[in-house]
Amino acid sequence: MTDKSAAAAARATVHGYPRQGLNRELKKAVEGYWKGTVDADALRATAAGLRRANWRRLADAGIHEVPTGDFSFYDHVLDTSVMVGAIPARHREAVAADALDGYFAMARGTQEVAPLEMTKWFDTNYHYLVPELGPDTVFTADSAEQVAGLREAVALGLTARPVLVGPVTYLLLAKPAPGVAPDFEPLTLLDRLLPVYAEVLADLRAAGADWVQLDEPALVEDRTPAELNATTRAYRDLGALTDRPKLLVASYFDRLGKALPVLAKAPVEGLALDFTGPAAANLDALAAVGGLPGKRLVAGVVNGRNIWINDFEKSLSVLGTLLGLADRVDVSSSCSLLHVPLDVTAERDIDPQILRWLAFARQKTEEIVTLARGLAQGTDTIAAELAANRADLASRAGSALTNDPAVRARASAVTDADGRRAAPYPERAAAQRAHLGLPLLPTTTIGSFPQTNELRAARADLRAGRIGTTGYDERIEAEIREVLAFQEKAGIDVLVHGEPERNDMVQYFAEQLTGYLATRQGWVQSYGTRYVRPPILAGDISRPEPMTVRWTTYAQSVTDRPVKGMLTGPVTMLAWSFVRDDQPLGDTARQVALALRDEVADLEAAGTSVIQVDEPALRETLPLRAGDRAAYLDWATESFRITTSGVRPATQIHTHMCYAEFGDIVQAIEDLDADVISLEAARSHMQVAGELAAAGYPREVGPGVYDIHSPRVPSAQEAAALLRKGLEAVPAERLWVNPDCGLKTRGWTEVRASLENLVEAAREVRGTLPATAS
């Protein structure tokens, strides 16, 4: 096909769409099902209605081929485990009794059985359920959900493309099941898995699929020759099938590297590639391998992970180059639009001119359609859109919001000394032990306590003017007193105020910093029914006034036990926001760090002796390619030290991380120079404690003994067993006892019981320690 005919054939599509609905209808229906107020039929009806609404919205906007299979009640990787029959032994009885309840048991656990481990989806804030596999795993095809979704779309008269997690990525994301040797490699099961995929593909073809998309984002990471050989074999075998749809293999989030020639040569009909951010390198790499002659290319030129408007002229230039490299070029998002909010027009509190800089899922869909039309019919047909786009890009670049000379001058003046504590860790540790007087195995929590309906109502009443600031403050103070009283009665050693005033650990701070924009309806799925509203990092950052001192000092005034000051760290402030794309991330991180440094100084001056600066996103934001990591970790750890290094030796600095593979960043954890780190460890059975010990980590550690993402209440014996496992790696004088993460999403009933058991476990294990340890 000539370039001209390839352009004329250009169509618009997307990899996936947000699942929740405009008013988070899916969240409400699923949680209603868990509570027993919504039955299974009503839940399924809600889900079907949301799917149909999404497809119609996409088709009406001009999307030529809609995705199916991207919808999920909880997580698409969990859906894949169901599709291939990879049900853990402990969940099989529940799944056999009721497929839906069994599905949610795998996701959340029950009082009787633990859920699947949960971790981050590559370098995003989306969490997936980790498949558990072993040498005895038997895969069986169950394509019912995938076929049903396709048939729903086809019945609406739409051209639909089922989207599945590819077999190589599925196995590379998996871990050895409990009881399986830790060195077991799930990828060795590939030959066992491929016939199951073949059966699913045949089922989808029979149901009307012309194309099926197989997502292989794991291939943008550094892969071994054996893993690349497995990829070659997988797509050789799938491509050789006769009873299958055409195959579109997709990758995103970064450049493909050595996997690109493997996929380019594979006997599949098309590739979907990301051409945004670091993945822009795919353009030259594709030309270097000779392009995709005879194949379809789905070009991801609209960023599916950030919310800034597309640069149409730049994207059209990329698309024009790609026309000579493939038989057919279609226009798409870089990845699923799952990672952005639904519709920018729902925002009422952002300046209308600034809104024109932003594109959520609906606007990105319109951008894709505009680019496809310009590519297929010529830029004259989109002249008005091009002119408006140029004006909006210029408006943003010239805005005073994006350039505060005072902030930039302060950031430029930072020296190495600003990122170093005044005393080495051993000296600090002695000063802190003397000052705090804590027992061995001190107990604490991560920060937040349950966000009750009453607290949410109080914030809503304040926004609506139904109560004044005085009435609101009284409600918050009452909640703080209740949280503290419970912790004192339970016997917790280092207390928290419970964060009742905070809507979200990032948004709360963003709303008080200049340069940030907060949304009202910008919900994005983090995991399951947990949705967050990432703020928008639009300009230079500064702190006009203290943000947390009021409530922390109030809490400390009503208890004799130490109360932690709680802040969100600079890397997490970036990772869980939509970040600027007009300056290096390290520059933005330094600005945020300096604003937080002021807050730390004010907390210490107000008498706070323990300050926790959470960095759960440090590992999440780690670049997918090893060659890019050193530069990232340099600015990431520096920004943390800038935040925390101005305090006295006796002030104890904590940090917290959760739901990530920490073994990859042990040296970076040490480079933070925090005095205490608490980490998620319950679902991974204390794996991180062993990793830190193996690396010789010398500071205090609190590996979690209470999985807060499950409704089950761990017994004291269960928590004690985890604690003893932690003691195998970390000596008692450096081991803390805490939950995996904050308690915001849990109910008070389970929190009370779980924390009481946690304290009992600490006392029990403390009582068994040798006298020399105490």
Write the layout of secondary structure elements.
Layout lengths: L2 H6 L16 H11 L4 H22 L4 E3 L7 H8 L8 H6 L1 H10 L9 E3 L6 E3 L2 E2 L10 H12 L4 E6 L1 H7 L1 E2 L13 H17 L4 E5 L9 H15 L6 E5 L8 H7 L4 E5 L7 H7 L3 E11 L9 H11 L3 E8 L18 H4 L5 H17 L5 H15 L7 H8 L12 H12 L16 H12 L4 H22 L16 H4 L3 E4 L6 E4 L2 E3 L3 E7 L6 H9 L6 E5 L1 H6 L9 H21 L4 E5 L14 H16 L7 E6 L8 H6 L4 E4 L7 H8 L5 E4 L12 H12 L20 H20 L7
Parallel strand pairs: 1-5, 4-6, 5-7, 7-8, 8-9, 9-10, 10-11, 16-17, 17-18, 18-19, 19-20
Antiparallel strand pairs: 2-3, 12-15, 13-14
Helix pairs in contact: 2-3, 9-10, 13-15, 17-24, 19-20, 24-25, 28-29
Account of the 3D structure:
It is a single chain. By secondary structure, the chain is α/β, with parallel strands linked by helices. The protein is built from 29 helices and 20 strands. The strands form six sheets. A seven-stranded parallel sheet has the order 1-5-7-8-9-10-11. The chain has a five-stranded parallel sheet with strand order 16-17-18-19-20. Strand 18, helix 26 and strand 19 form a beta-alpha-beta unit.
